[in-house]
Amino acid sequence: MPEPIVVGTDGSGESDGAVDWAAAEAVMRRRPLHIVHAVKSWPYKAPRLAPGEKAERVTHAGEAVLEATRERVHARWPDLETTTALLAKDTANALREQSQGAFQLVMGSRGRGGFASLLLGSTSLRMAARATIPLVIVRSEAGARRDVVVGIDLPLETAAVLDYAFEAAALYGARLRVIHAWQLSPTLVDAGYTAEEEAVGEDLRDQVVAAYAPARSRHPEVEVVEEIVLKHAVSALSNASRTARLLVAGAHARRWNAPRLGSTSHGIIHHARSPVAVIPPR
Asked: What is the CATH number of the domain that holds 213?
């Protein structure tokens, strides 16, 4: 059986959007969909309820969320193989457990209890830092969506990020925009080195083309444009996400067996307007 696409739901509008995105992705990729809902007992504590009654109510509520979600998916994608899981543990651990061996994990940007002013829920941020498979964080904002956008940092290993981005662009029949953002050092800015800026930009373009050449050879049908921009990476990629179908970025390698999320990826997943795929290193 193909590796499933796992999606978390809590019954909120944000998670409904994530489930719809994951289901459509599963259909296109011909993979099963696995829907996960986690419950903890502490939000439901009430003096009038005995422990057994409380647990039963929590279980029924979780089952209702999963059943409603599965029925909604089945109504739109009747041939999609769909399974569900209800776990009595915190959301991050539940999703980490259920996504082991999966193709990718999908989440909403925030769920129930999130404040409207927060751009990313704490669980989504934790999972972005810890995921060992591609994690897609879905936002519910509407808008015209066209290209797949991938941001690459040339000093770092980019193969996994570019492979995922090319595969997604081929799957969607979309153009791929490969963006590398850089900034002049303060010394060069103060000295007014515009000629240096042009020379560095051309050299970086050559490096970007060389970096994506292996992935492009496997997907020659994908139209590719490379963009070398003199701007902060978070700003450049967040702006590009306004009309992107998907924004792809990489997570840093692990250090001392601890997960890391670089400042650029952290900023992108907070401010992007499109779904964001965070790709772990190989």
From this structure: 3.40.50.620
Which residues partner with 34 through β-bridges? 6, 83
CA dist 270 and 273 (Å) reads 9
Q: Which two tokens stand for residue 173?
A: 């029949």
Domain end among 115, 138, 161:
138
What would the pLDDT profile of 110-138 be if each residue is shown by its tens digit? 655 433 333 345 666 667 667 789 999 99
DSSP state of 165: H
Q: Starting from the edge strand earliest in sequence, which strands make up the sheet with 276-279, in order?
A: 82-87, 33-38, 5-8, 104-108, 135-138, 276-279, 244-250, 147-151, 176-182, 224-230
The domain tally of the chain equals: 2
If asked whether residues 165 and 68 sit together in one domain, one would say: no
Residues 271 and 204 in one domain: yes
Regarding whether 129 and 158 lie in a shared domain, the answer is no
Interval 218-264: pLDDT, tens: 999 999 999 999 888 899 999 999 999 999 998 865 443 444 556 67
- Which pLDDT belongs to residue 53? 58
Domain encompassing residue 127: 5-138
Tokens at residue 260, please?
Answer: 């890391």
In sequence order, the 6+-apart residues with CB closer than 8 A to the CB of 201 are 182, 228, 230
- The rounded distance, in Å, linking the Cα atoms of 208 and 210 is 5
Helix (H) or strand (E) holding 277: strand 276-279
- Please tell me whether residues 11 and 128 are part of one structural domain: yes
Number of H helices, E strands in the chain: 9, 10
Per DSSP bridges, beta strands 147-151 and 244-250 are: parallel
DSSP state of 42: G
Domain boundary among 81, 107, 138: 138
- Quote the tokens at residue 72: 């909604």
